[in-house]
Amino acid sequence: MRDADTPAVPGHLDATELRTLDAHWRAANYLSVGQIYLMANPLLTEPLRPEHIKPRLLGHWGTTPGLNLVYTHLNRVIKARDLDALCVWGPGHGGPAVLANTWLEGTYSDIRPEVGRDHAGMAKLFRQFSFPGGVPSHIAPEVPGSIHEGGELGYSLAHAYGAAFDNPGLLVACVVGDGEAETGPLAASWHSTKFLDPVYDGAVLPILHLNGYKIANPTVLARIPQDELDALLRGYGHNPIHVGGDDPETVHQALAAAMDRSLDRIADIQRRARAEGEADRPRWPVIVLRTPKGWTGPHDVDGQTVEGTWRAHQVPLSAVREDRDHLHQLEDWLRSYRPDELFDDAGRPRPEVLACIPKGTRRLGASPHANGGLLLRDLPVPPLEPHAVHIDKPGGGPHEPTRVLGGFLESVMEATAERRDFRVFGPDETDSNRLDALYEATGRAWQAETTAGDEHLARHGRVMEVLSEHLCQGWLEGYLLTGRHGVFSSYEAFAHIVDSMAGQHIKWLRTTRRLPWRRSLASLNYLLTSHVWRQDHNGFSHQDPGFIDHVLNKSPEVVRVYLPPDANTLLAVAGQALRSRDHVNVIVAGKQPCFDWLSLDDARAHCARGAGVWSWAGTEVSSRDPDVVLACAGDVPTLETLAAADLLRRHLPELAVRVVNVVDLARLLPPGEHPHGMPDFEYDALFTRDKPVIFAYHGYPWLIHRLSYRRAGHPNLHVRGYKDEGTTTTPFDMVVRNDLDRFRLVTDVVDRVPGLAVRAVALRQAMADVRARHQEWVREHGTDLPEVAEWGWA
Questions:
Q1: Which stretches make up the Xylulose 5-phosphate/Fructose 6-phosphate phosphoketolase N-terminal domain (predicted)?
Q2: Coil, strand or helix at 209
């Protein structure tokens, strides 16, 4: 499998290096097979018997020998060059390889002293793998040195680049599996070279591992001609370096030469950019590594070829407990690595096995970048006061909330200019989302060609824009996981594109909270704007508030959802979110002009409560209970609720109306289900136990029912929200179409407050009439009714 681009030459490694590298690789392979199969007899001190074998064989062998090979050779170059390095392991179920290598280097025993580097520790390492009470089969938070959840494919390369941003001394190697390379997010990630700054960022060395097969099919990149693959990689901005074969000595020599050549090229790129000011976008190296799937495992099983085929993907010998031939094959396989040469009688790795391993934090499993909380510094969050909007009374303004937030984020960007540990990510929407004040402090990161008409492009910029939500999410996750801070701004409807990525990150945070050696990370902060109620110009395709539902289905200890109703509340929420740790904060806020309801001090107090009565908006008096509660969450629902309250004040002045605004959705849950949940007595005091509650909500209405179904007053709760009725229309017509408008809310009050249905029949009829008039007006004039467009809070 050698070719003209392969840099291997005989003798690149001397005999000692070759012998020690091969010993380390064989040891890692032995430990990997042992994890998949054995629950006893780890050193084969007696012949294998069925009772030594796990009752359920779980794990993935096919990718493992290739990952072990890469780990071995990374050890060599890290030690030889004293590199600060991290590796992201893309192939999904490569857990046996990385666990084996961290055990060999001692980092696994550092975090799990009971799993020592000896016979007893090896037995525990084997038994715990894919075993109840143990560790997963994939690379997970429990694996030291990892920042990447390996259970889902497609995100490794984006994570690697995120780790490299603003880490000028870091090398991030990234193994990309050829199955993973077929995913859309990974395909977009190759474009990250156009955003990697060789001056202020580190370097990423992708290693495309082509072992030829997925679970049951060949992989695309392994089956296209090499010149076609080279053209693809060169088109992405890389220079490919090929390594391949099935002879271990040849492959060791080739991979060592490829890594040296790659690292020399990276060093030259960085020197030219940093010392000589070279501004041309470089071509970064990529190693293409071809090795057989399941290399060094059983070649044939039950008369069928396994090594080098899809059959090696998971467990090559599946009936070891029941089939004597399989048991003998497993023992032969394990002994083929010559474990007596690799481990002494006490199960300790021999010095030759450990010769290539670097020391201390240079070990891949001990890199502080893989435990980002070790490097995390508090974000210098500036005061909110200079950015707050002044209001003399509720209903002032209007202001664009995200534009106000943009000024605040610009001050955060300025405060981090020297330390460079804060970035804002978004899919080409910074201007659209009114965050363009950021450009006062930095530009858009860009390494590709520029023309005279471009604006705000900058080689050293820290606003990250690319039209791929997957890439923005992956970059930000890699950035946060290695100890930095950031915000992801997106149109609300298209946050769904990263539903699965968000879920995986939430699982990562939940798991790390249970690992005492994992340090806290800065929270992942979503700003969802251009939201459902003000996508009247883009239409139905841009109208979907369901990301909130997705997030609130996840681990309560991690997730937070905020719906600030105005600019000052958005500032207060953002300041709180940027200071938080180990959370996923979802903030939904509008970018269109809206009324200012709260001063900054009131907004802070409201955010601290999470939900509260706006006494100035209602008509209740202290001497009696309210007749009805108008509740709201979200900027447009708040507007419609206050307009409804205004109508009720004018038409039914005797009615006692309480207005409640909810900014933190989790407050609706009981405290046993979420840390922010309200106890029953507090919830009942706010919403009452027996009065009608008309709740105007930003998203799908059934979420509010799900959050509050256990409350005593739930039978009295009536929720209005988005019903998937959307189109290109006027802003008010959107709320009318979904029955969230002020006139419908007033009708709900008439229908649900006992006695009003008869007493206020004229008001109900008037509300129906104005809705009918709206339908005619909007279709004739293309604008909202004057009494709606010109309404203000008196």
A1: 14-374
A2: strand
